[in-house]
Amino acid sequence: MAELLSVAHKYLDAWNNRDADALVATFAEGGTYSDPSSGEVSGEALKAYVNNLWEAFPDLSFNVVSSAEAGPNMVATQWFMKGTNTGPFNGLPPSGRTVALPGADFIEIAGDRIKSVRGYFDSRVVPEQLGLQVVVQPNEVGAFTFGMSVAAHSGKKEKPGAFSITAIWNADEQTEEVKTLSTDIAKDMLSMEGFIGVTLVRIGDLGITVSAWEKPENTIQLMRGGAHSKAMKRFWEDLGDAAFTSVWVPHHINPFWIRCTACHKMADYEGGNGKCDCGETLPERPGYF
After folding, report:
1. Which residues of the chain are under the pLDDT cut of 70?
2. pLDDT at position 139, please?
3. How far is Cα 172 from Cα 53, in angstroms, rounded to an integer?
4. Tell me, what's the pLDDT at 136?
5. Checking CA distances to 238, which of 38, 99, 156, 279 falls within 20 to 30 Å?
């Protein structure tokens, strides 16, 4: 038992010492690590996984609550992890927040090396503590398909004179690249003349970008290099299975209705010059897009 615990503690010490080489060296050839975030990894893939964690949480530490033999060649370890997010995490900028997470490892040992580590923890805890949204939803229910979206706004409140709509269908393994390119294009848009706002939508194998502009001719700026040109180059190479781009001009845009805080009725903001029929000044209206 003492020998099993010694091997397990050597592995845990490597985590706390933030030594990827020493950690991988505790595994037997072909030994694997898995947890709810990593999937099953080994060797260089395991080294990359732990280094990415330490980049995101440079002070990451594990306090061992208990460690005991749990069967032949098996050690069960209960731990409490803490760390402060001062580096990029899953493509997101540092939040500066501290996470605290309980969990457990089941460590299978062969001789003086680890055959496998299976880690268990609540995968919702870290994103929630970092202030991230955690949405649990089905992929499909009947005729409805669910996805995710993100928006960026210029702060302008002008009425849109045109909408640029792009749709691309791609294989699952290309989704992250499509999302990255779409986000880079949206960042470029923020500095373009006449740009009002953009919404990026991902539903299954379909990615949709809808951007609002003051005038149709403003959209031509997308063709002048930058992230959009890079994305188009990748599309013509091998990115995506199908796509279309378009520019739409509004047929009409109805009045912007704002609820009065005094009489609680809806009022035409522009038609009333920012005032309700009751005489109360209306709350400032949001932008159109």
Report:
1. 1-2
2. 85
3. 25
4. 76
5. 38
Say what the pLDDT of residue 2 is: 52
The pLDDT score that the predictor gives to residue 91 is 78
E strands, the chain, are: 27-35, 39-41, 61-71, 74-84, 98-110, 113-121, 140-141, 144-145, 148-153, 162-169, 195-203, 206-213, 242-248, 257-259, 266-268
Q: Give the Cα separation of 82 and 24 in Å (integer).
A: 21
Calpha distance 269→247 (Å, rounded): 28
Question: What pLDDT was estimated at residue 46?
Answer: 95
- Is pTM, for the whole model, over 0.90? no
Tokens of 129: 């503590």
Distance between start and end Cα atoms, the chain: 64
Could you give the C-alpha distances from 63 to 58, 109, 127, 195, in angstroms and in order?
A: 16, 21, 21, 50
Q: Which amino acid, one-letter code, is at 15? A: W
Alpha helices by DSSP H, the chain: 2-16, 20-25, 43-56, 125-129, 175-189, 226-237
pLDDT given at position 138: 87
Q: Would you state the structure tokens that stand for residue 249, as one six-digit string?
A: 């001009």
In the numeric block, the tokens 């503590």 are attached to: 129
Distance CA 167, CA 235 (A): 12
| Domain boundaries of the chain, sorted by first residue | 2-129, 140-248
> Per CATH, the architecture of 140-248 is what?
2-Layer Sandwich (3.30)
Tokens encoding 274: 């920012």
User: 163 — phi, psi (to 5°)?
Assistant: -130, 130
